[in-house]
Amino acid sequence: VKRVRTHHLRQWKNEGQKWPMLTAYDQYAAQVFDEAGIPVLLVGDSASNNVFGNETSLPVTVDELIPLVRAVTRSAHRALVVADLPFGSYQGSPQQAFDTAVGFMKEANAHAVKLEGGLPMVPQVQLLTDAGIPVMAHIGFTPQSEHNLGGYRVQGRGDAAQRMVDEAVALQDAGAFAVVMEMVPSPVAAEVTKALDIPTIGIGAGPDCDAQVLVWQDMMGLRTGKAPRFVKRYADLHGTMLDAARTYAEDVATGAFPAPEHTFDS
Ligand code: KIV
Ligand code: NA
Protein backbone atom coordinates (compact mmCIF):
# COMPACT_ATOMS: atom_id res chain seq x y z
CA VAL A 1 0.00 0.00 0.00
CA LYS A 2 1.19 3.46 -0.82
CA ARG A 3 1.35 5.99 1.99
CA VAL A 4 -1.07 8.90 1.80
CA ARG A 5 0.85 12.17 1.40
CA THR A 6 -0.11 15.78 1.83
CA HIS A 7 -0.20 16.28 -1.95
CA HIS A 8 -2.93 13.63 -2.21
CA LEU A 9 -5.11 15.70 0.11
CA ARG A 10 -4.69 18.76 -2.08
CA GLN A 11 -5.40 16.65 -5.17
CA TRP A 12 -8.65 15.40 -3.59
CA LYS A 13 -9.68 19.00 -2.93
CA ASN A 14 -9.08 19.87 -6.56
CA GLU A 15 -11.13 16.85 -7.63
CA GLY A 16 -13.95 17.67 -5.19
CA GLN A 17 -13.38 14.35 -3.42
CA LYS A 18 -14.29 14.68 0.26
CA TRP A 19 -12.38 12.57 2.78
CA PRO A 20 -12.64 11.47 6.42
CA MET A 21 -10.18 11.85 9.29
CA LEU A 22 -10.44 10.06 12.64
CA THR A 23 -8.46 10.17 15.82
CA ALA A 24 -6.50 7.07 16.83
CA TYR A 25 -4.39 6.48 19.92
CA ASP A 26 -3.39 2.83 19.74
CA GLN A 27 -2.62 -0.20 17.60
CA TYR A 28 -6.08 -1.68 16.97
CA ALA A 29 -7.85 1.58 16.29
CA ALA A 30 -5.07 2.48 13.85
CA GLN A 31 -5.25 -0.93 12.12
CA VAL A 32 -9.04 -0.94 11.81
CA PHE A 33 -9.28 2.64 10.53
CA ASP A 34 -6.38 2.07 8.12
CA GLU A 35 -8.14 -1.06 6.81
CA ALA A 36 -11.34 1.00 6.42
CA GLY A 37 -9.42 3.39 4.18
CA ILE A 38 -9.43 6.42 6.48
CA PRO A 39 -6.57 8.36 4.86
CA VAL A 40 -5.54 10.59 7.77
CA LEU A 41 -5.29 9.58 11.44
CA LEU A 42 -4.83 12.17 14.16
CA VAL A 43 -3.23 11.26 17.46
CA GLY A 44 -5.08 14.10 19.12
CA ASP A 45 -4.31 15.78 22.39
CA SER A 46 -7.89 14.60 22.94
CA ALA A 47 -6.06 11.51 24.25
CA SER A 48 -6.04 13.59 27.44
CA ASN A 49 -9.78 13.06 27.95
CA ASN A 50 -10.19 9.87 25.84
CA VAL A 51 -7.22 7.80 27.03
CA PHE A 52 -5.79 9.33 30.19
CA GLY A 53 -9.01 10.16 32.01
CA ASN A 54 -8.59 13.93 32.28
CA GLU A 55 -11.53 16.31 31.95
CA THR A 56 -9.92 18.52 29.32
CA SER A 57 -7.12 18.38 26.77
CA LEU A 58 -4.91 20.73 28.79
CA PRO A 59 -3.02 18.34 31.14
CA VAL A 60 -1.67 15.87 28.55
CA THR A 61 2.10 16.02 27.97
CA VAL A 62 4.50 15.37 25.10
CA ASP A 63 5.93 12.39 27.01
CA GLU A 64 2.46 10.88 27.31
CA LEU A 65 1.61 11.39 23.64
CA ILE A 66 4.87 10.12 22.10
CA PRO A 67 4.23 6.41 22.80
CA LEU A 68 0.68 6.73 21.42
CA VAL A 69 1.95 8.33 18.20
CA ARG A 70 4.58 5.59 17.93
CA ALA A 71 1.91 2.87 18.28
CA VAL A 72 -0.22 4.48 15.56
CA THR A 73 2.62 5.04 13.08
CA ARG A 74 3.74 1.42 13.59
CA SER A 75 0.22 0.12 12.96
CA ALA A 76 -1.13 2.23 10.08
CA HIS A 77 0.47 1.33 6.77
CA ARG A 78 -1.45 3.67 4.47
CA ALA A 79 -2.76 6.54 6.58
CA LEU A 80 -0.90 9.79 7.04
CA VAL A 81 -0.42 10.09 10.80
CA VAL A 82 -0.62 13.53 12.39
CA ALA A 83 0.70 14.17 15.91
CA ASP A 84 -1.15 16.87 17.85
CA LEU A 85 1.17 19.21 19.77
CA PRO A 86 -0.14 19.45 23.34
CA PHE A 87 -0.85 22.64 25.28
CA GLY A 88 2.30 24.46 26.36
CA SER A 89 4.63 22.61 24.00
CA TYR A 90 4.69 25.12 21.11
CA GLN A 91 3.02 28.42 21.97
CA GLY A 92 6.09 29.86 23.70
CA SER A 93 8.15 30.39 20.58
CA PRO A 94 8.78 29.02 17.10
CA GLN A 95 11.93 27.36 18.49
CA GLN A 96 9.89 25.57 21.17
CA ALA A 97 7.44 24.39 18.51
CA PHE A 98 10.34 23.17 16.41
CA ASP A 99 11.91 21.21 19.28
CA THR A 100 8.59 19.58 20.16
CA ALA A 101 7.75 18.73 16.55
CA VAL A 102 11.19 17.22 15.97
CA GLY A 103 10.61 14.97 18.99
CA PHE A 104 7.40 13.63 17.47
CA MET A 105 9.09 13.10 14.09
CA LYS A 106 12.26 11.43 15.41
CA GLU A 107 10.98 9.47 18.40
CA ALA A 108 7.52 8.53 17.13
CA ASN A 109 7.88 8.64 13.35
CA ALA A 110 5.00 11.14 12.95
CA HIS A 111 4.34 12.22 9.37
CA ALA A 112 3.03 15.67 10.31
CA VAL A 113 2.09 17.74 13.35
CA LYS A 114 -0.97 19.81 14.24
CA LEU A 115 -1.12 22.95 16.33
CA GLU A 116 -3.92 25.26 17.43
CA GLY A 117 -4.15 28.98 16.78
CA GLY A 118 -4.41 31.68 14.13
CA LEU A 119 -2.17 34.69 13.41
CA PRO A 120 0.01 34.31 16.54
CA MET A 121 1.04 30.82 15.32
CA VAL A 122 2.10 31.95 11.83
CA PRO A 123 5.82 32.12 12.82
CA GLN A 124 5.59 28.59 14.24
CA VAL A 125 3.98 27.25 11.07
CA GLN A 126 6.55 29.05 8.93
CA LEU A 127 9.58 27.68 10.82
CA LEU A 128 8.28 24.11 10.94
CA THR A 129 7.36 23.94 7.26
CA ASP A 130 10.67 25.59 6.30
CA ALA A 131 12.33 22.80 8.29
CA GLY A 132 10.44 20.13 6.34
CA ILE A 133 7.75 19.32 8.89
CA PRO A 134 4.21 19.31 7.47
CA VAL A 135 1.87 21.34 9.67
CA MET A 136 -1.91 21.03 10.04
CA ALA A 137 -3.42 24.20 11.50
CA HIS A 138 -6.50 24.33 13.77
CA ILE A 139 -8.72 27.41 14.09
CA GLY A 140 -12.23 28.30 15.25
CA PHE A 141 -12.87 26.79 18.64
CA THR A 142 -9.47 25.65 19.87
CA PRO A 143 -9.90 23.52 23.02
CA GLN A 144 -6.46 24.39 24.43
CA SER A 145 -7.68 28.02 24.68
CA GLU A 146 -10.96 27.06 26.34
CA HIS A 147 -10.39 29.36 29.31
CA ASN A 148 -9.54 32.32 27.10
CA LEU A 149 -12.45 31.69 24.73
CA GLY A 150 -14.93 31.44 27.62
CA GLY A 151 -15.90 27.79 27.21
CA TYR A 152 -17.14 25.69 24.32
CA ARG A 153 -18.56 28.30 21.95
CA VAL A 154 -19.06 28.63 18.22
CA GLN A 155 -16.36 30.90 16.73
CA GLY A 156 -16.41 33.13 13.66
CA ARG A 157 -19.88 34.64 13.98
CA GLY A 158 -20.53 38.20 12.77
CA ASP A 159 -17.44 40.36 12.38
CA ALA A 160 -15.22 37.43 13.28
CA ALA A 161 -16.08 35.73 9.97
CA GLN A 162 -13.74 37.82 7.82
CA ARG A 163 -11.02 37.52 10.46
CA MET A 164 -11.30 33.75 10.20
CA VAL A 165 -10.83 33.86 6.43
CA ASP A 166 -7.78 36.12 6.84
CA GLU A 167 -6.37 33.85 9.54
CA ALA A 168 -6.78 30.73 7.39
CA VAL A 169 -5.13 32.42 4.40
CA ALA A 170 -2.20 33.54 6.60
CA LEU A 171 -1.70 29.98 7.86
CA GLN A 172 -1.82 28.67 4.30
CA ASP A 173 0.72 31.28 3.21
CA ALA A 174 2.96 30.25 6.12
CA GLY A 175 2.98 26.73 4.71
CA ALA A 176 0.20 24.77 6.46
CA PHE A 177 -0.98 21.78 4.38
CA ALA A 178 -4.50 21.72 5.86
CA VAL A 179 -6.66 23.61 8.34
CA VAL A 180 -9.00 22.10 10.92
CA MET A 181 -12.02 24.31 11.67
CA GLU A 182 -13.88 23.50 14.88
CA MET A 183 -17.36 24.83 15.74
CA VAL A 184 -17.59 27.40 12.95
CA PRO A 185 -20.89 28.42 11.29
CA SER A 186 -21.35 26.46 8.06
CA PRO A 187 -21.42 29.52 5.75
CA VAL A 188 -18.19 30.85 7.26
CA ALA A 189 -16.49 27.47 6.91
CA ALA A 190 -17.69 27.33 3.29
CA GLU A 191 -16.15 30.75 2.64
CA VAL A 192 -12.83 29.72 4.19
CA THR A 193 -12.87 26.51 2.16
CA LYS A 194 -13.40 28.47 -1.04
CA ALA A 195 -10.67 30.98 -0.18
CA LEU A 196 -8.01 28.27 0.38
CA ASP A 197 -6.06 26.04 -1.99
CA ILE A 198 -5.29 23.67 0.91
CA PRO A 199 -8.02 21.43 2.35
CA THR A 200 -10.22 22.40 5.27
CA ILE A 201 -11.21 19.72 7.78
CA GLY A 202 -14.41 20.42 9.67
CA ILE A 203 -15.61 19.38 13.10
CA GLY A 204 -18.88 21.17 13.70
CA ALA A 205 -18.13 23.30 10.63
CA GLY A 206 -20.81 22.13 8.22
CA PRO A 207 -20.93 20.12 5.00
CA ASP A 208 -18.82 22.33 2.75
CA CYS A 209 -15.40 21.61 4.25
CA ASP A 210 -13.11 19.45 2.13
CA ALA A 211 -12.88 16.83 4.89
CA GLN A 212 -14.45 15.92 8.25
CA VAL A 213 -12.91 14.77 11.52
CA LEU A 214 -14.37 13.16 14.64
CA VAL A 215 -12.97 11.69 17.83
CA TRP A 216 -13.42 7.93 17.37
CA GLN A 217 -14.76 7.18 20.87
CA ASP A 218 -17.46 9.79 20.27
CA MET A 219 -18.59 8.57 16.85
CA MET A 220 -18.50 4.90 17.85
CA GLY A 221 -20.42 5.46 21.06
CA LEU A 222 -17.71 4.34 23.46
CA ARG A 223 -17.99 7.60 25.34
CA THR A 224 -21.38 7.91 27.00
CA GLY A 225 -23.32 10.96 28.09
CA LYS A 226 -24.28 14.00 26.11
CA ALA A 227 -22.19 14.36 22.97
CA PRO A 228 -21.60 17.67 21.20
CA ARG A 229 -24.10 18.55 18.46
CA PHE A 230 -21.54 17.83 15.73
CA VAL A 231 -21.12 14.16 16.71
CA LYS A 232 -22.97 11.45 14.79
CA ARG A 233 -23.05 8.03 16.47
CA TYR A 234 -22.15 5.16 14.14
CA ALA A 235 -21.96 2.38 16.73
CA ASP A 236 -22.71 1.57 20.36
CA LEU A 237 -19.35 0.26 21.56
CA HIS A 238 -20.18 1.10 25.15
CA GLY A 239 -23.21 -1.18 24.95
CA THR A 240 -21.33 -3.91 23.11
CA MET A 241 -18.44 -3.94 25.60
CA LEU A 242 -20.74 -3.69 28.61
CA ASP A 243 -22.74 -6.72 27.43
CA ALA A 244 -19.58 -8.71 26.76
CA ALA A 245 -18.03 -7.89 30.14
CA ARG A 246 -21.26 -8.72 31.99
CA THR A 247 -21.78 -12.00 30.13
CA TYR A 248 -18.18 -13.02 30.81
CA ALA A 249 -18.57 -12.22 34.50
CA GLU A 250 -21.75 -14.29 34.63
CA ASP A 251 -20.12 -17.22 32.79
CA VAL A 252 -17.20 -17.26 35.22
CA ALA A 253 -19.56 -17.16 38.19
CA THR A 254 -21.73 -20.00 36.84
CA GLY A 255 -18.83 -22.07 35.51
CA ALA A 256 -20.09 -21.78 31.88
CA PHE A 257 -16.62 -20.49 31.05
CA PRO A 258 -14.17 -22.05 30.49
CA ALA A 259 -15.81 -24.90 28.56
CA PRO A 260 -13.95 -28.06 27.47
CA GLU A 261 -12.87 -26.44 24.18
CA HIS A 262 -11.03 -23.74 26.13
CA THR A 263 -9.07 -26.16 28.32
CA PHE A 264 -6.11 -28.56 27.97
CA ASP A 265 -6.00 -32.29 28.65
CA SER A 266 -3.10 -33.83 30.50
O1 KIV B 1 -7.44 16.39 19.57
C1 KIV B 1 -8.33 16.18 18.72
O2 KIV B 1 -9.00 15.13 18.72
C2 KIV B 1 -8.56 17.21 17.71
C3 KIV B 1 -9.62 16.96 16.68
C4 KIV B 1 -10.97 16.95 17.27
C5 KIV B 1 -9.52 17.92 15.56
O3 KIV B 1 -7.88 18.20 17.72
NA1 NA C 1 -6.56 18.49 19.49
Kindly describe this structure.
InterPro entries: Pantoate_hydroxy_MeTrfase, Pyrv/PenolPyrv_kinase-like_dom, Pyrv_kinase-like_dom_sf. It comes from Aeromicrobium terrae. One of its GO terms (cellular component) is cytoplasm. This protein has an 8-stranded parallel beta barrel with strand order 1-2-3-4-5-6-7-8, surrounded by 7 helices. The protein has helices at 6-15, 27-35, 47-50, 62-75, 94-108, 122-130, 146-149, 160-174, 186-195, 216-219, 237-254, and strands spanning 19-23, 40-43, 80-84, 112-116, 135-140, 178-182, 200-203, 211-214. It has 11 helices and 8 strands. The radius of gyration is 20 Å and the shape is globular. Helix 6 runs parallel beside helix 8 (160-174). Helices cover 42% and strands 14% of the residues. With 266 residues, it is α/β, with parallel strands linked by helices. It has one domain: TIM Barrel (Alpha-Beta Barrel). The model has no long low-confidence stretch (mean pLDDT 98). Strand 3, helix 5 and strand 4 (112-116) form a beta-alpha-beta unit. The protein binds 3-methyl-2-oxobutanoic acid and sodium ion.
